[in-house]
Amino acid sequence: MYESPFFKTSELHLLPQAPGVYKFHNSEGIVIYVGKAKSLKNRVSSYFNQSKTHNRKTLKLVREIHKIEISIVNSEFDALLLENSLIKELQPKYNILLKDDKSFPYLCVTNEPFPRIIATRNKNTRNGTYFGPYASVRAMNNVLELIRKLYTIRTCKLSLTDQNIQANKFKVCLEYHIGNCKGPCEGLQNQKSYNKDISLAEQILRGNLNIPKQYFREHMEREAEQFNFEEAQKFKEKLELLEKFQSKSLVVNPRLTDIDVCTIISEEKSAFLNYMKIKNGSIIVTHTIEIKKKLEETDEELLLMGIIDLQQLYQSESKEILTNIEVENIFKEFHTITPQIGDKKKLVEMSLKNALFFKKEKLNQNESSKIKELRVVKQLQADLQLKDLPLRIECFDNSNLGGTNPVASMVHFKNGRPAKNEYRHYHVKTVVGPDDFASMTEIVGRRYSRLQKENRPMPNLIVIDGGKGQLNAACIALKELNLYGEIPIIGIAKRLEEIYFPGDQYPIHISKKSESLKLLQRLRDEAHRFAITFHRNIRSKKTFVSELEGIQGIGEKTIDELLSHFKSLTKIKNASFEELSKVVGNSKAEILVRSLQNKKGELS
């Protein structure tokens, strides 16, 4: 059995053999993973009993488990829904998150007299009824354009209350004169007639094209019977518009309705999932997402999570879901089918084509991004006349605001992009007072002496944030390590973006439009940001510690525990006795509450 350093596995037998959701907390009380289970006891125990089958990431998760919290539910489906909701709310670091890096467009039928139909990306149900989201603005505009051709829906923002209309506050606009509006602002169209158009437009927004088609067909036939051929022609043209719109997305069989299709293509680190919503033989939604795998998620788990999430997003109530992989039908709320022949099989194949196309697009984008990054690195090599391609660049900066707490930072770029796991912070140890040059000599020396000792690869280029003085200070460290001349090193001065080389009296200037200069500026700015942030955190911590050190009975260990948990003095002052006692115990919590309350009294 695999033991967590925090959690006692002897307590696992207390877990129930019931469906539910479990939450893993780390030592700081943060939820790091949420999962669902048919049997909470069996599923949670498997993390500790089956450690030989786990990958590296799962073992890391288990090592961090400090507390396990469970919620028992009535069924597996309820567990799936609760898990989905908790993942969205808590966003645990070990869970996959089905989200896009964009906000989707919606069409909203507003809550006002003579409602409008507007496009928006901000969903607030108090403003009206929302339809969508649409996978693209183009898809949304196609629907909106169809509705405006079929119905005379107003586009103005006037407040068309009965009182305002009766008071003759408004005059008809150009939209009325060209036939796009019937003039409700002047009382030329009543609410009953207008709302009938809105009701039919909402059917189109829901994907129910048969209802407005039947409406136009009946009116066309009625007008024709009464020899009103001009009016009949208008209804005929609207009916043809609807049929043309439907034919663009007709799948194979108009009898296929209220069906969802969800297919998955899986790779080692990612999965690509396509979702389609079918009504009356038409695809009214198609959406593909990429899922980054985090632990040992199976394709079935990813597909179920995708189905729940995307059905909620697109407000689908379909009970039948077509898939390309076998999924155990354990839920009464919906059932999955993997069709082998016929029109449903063709739908699955179409969905898979969408997923494959999306995957190829993503790979092409990543490849294009890599080519661009390599191009910038090659340009930098040419501009600086470097012997080797600067694939690994390190940039140094130091910070001692007000001459206190001198610190430094080093950032590392690999292939033109930040490699944040290689970033380093430094406390300046050997320099007394605000001496930037000596500080630079120290940190550069410490960095590369360590790389030498650990036999790790050296960078292809070193960048120093500063002019000649800072550069010369860094060169002193390289000379002491016998690395001077082995690694190219430059300084970049902020004022005129001058590039200095060791031993050269005059700087060089790279074109301000050059991508290579922008890369150097990004390195310099990132090193500066990293140093400043570190410096502020240290000053904040010192203020925190100094205020607590004056409290009798509160030692260094207690201060460290408080700092680790609360992060700031303000949060400690606002914490309740119960919150403090959980961290440092009752007796020390009493001392803290009493002392901090006395200080508040003194200040007031």
Essential attributes:
604 residues; alpha+beta; Alpha-Beta Plaits; GIY-YIG endonuclease; 5-stranded mixed β-sheet; 18 strands; 18 helices; 7-stranded mixed β-sheet
CA-based shape: globular
> Rg from C-alpha positions?
33 Å
Helix content: 40-55%
Mind describing the biggest β-sheet?
7 strands, mixed
Oligomer: single chain
- Structural category: alpha+beta
Total beta strands? 18
CATH class of the largest domain: Alpha Beta
CATH hierarchy: architecture of the largest domain: 2-Layer Sandwich
Low-confidence stretches: none
User: What's the domain count?
Assistant: 5
Please provide a written account of the structure.
The protein has 5 domains: 9-90, GIY-YIG endonuclease, CATH 3.40.1440; 106-248, no CATH class; 259-360, 2-Layer Sandwich (Alpha-Beta Plaits), CATH 3.30.70; 392-537, Nucleotidyltransferase, domain 5 (2-Layer Sandwich), CATH 3.30.420.340; 550-603, 5' to 3' exonuclease, C-terminal subdomain (DNA polymerase, domain 1). The chain is built from 18 helices and 18 strands. The chain has helices at residues 40-49, 56-64, 76-90, 137-150, 162-166, 174-177, 191-205, 210-225, 229-248, 299-313, 342-384, 436-453, 468-480, 515-549, 556-566, 569-574, 577-584, 586-603, and strands at residues 20-25, 31-37, 67-72, 106-110, 117-120, 128-131, 259-266, 270-279, 282-292, 320-323, 335-337, 392-399, 407-414, 417-418, 424-427, 461-465, 489-493, 498-500. Strands 12, 13, 14, 15, 16, 17 and 18 form a 7-stranded mixed sheet that branches. Helix 8 packs antiparallel against helix 9 (229-248). It is globular, with a radius of gyration of 33 Å. It holds the Pfam family HHH_5. Residues 17-96 form the GIY-YIG domain. InterPro entries: GIY-YIG_endonuc, GIY-YIG_endonuc_sf, GIY-YIG_UvrC_Cho, RuvA_2-like, UvrABC_protein_C, UvrC, UvrC_RNase_H_dom, UvrC_RNase_H_dom_sf.
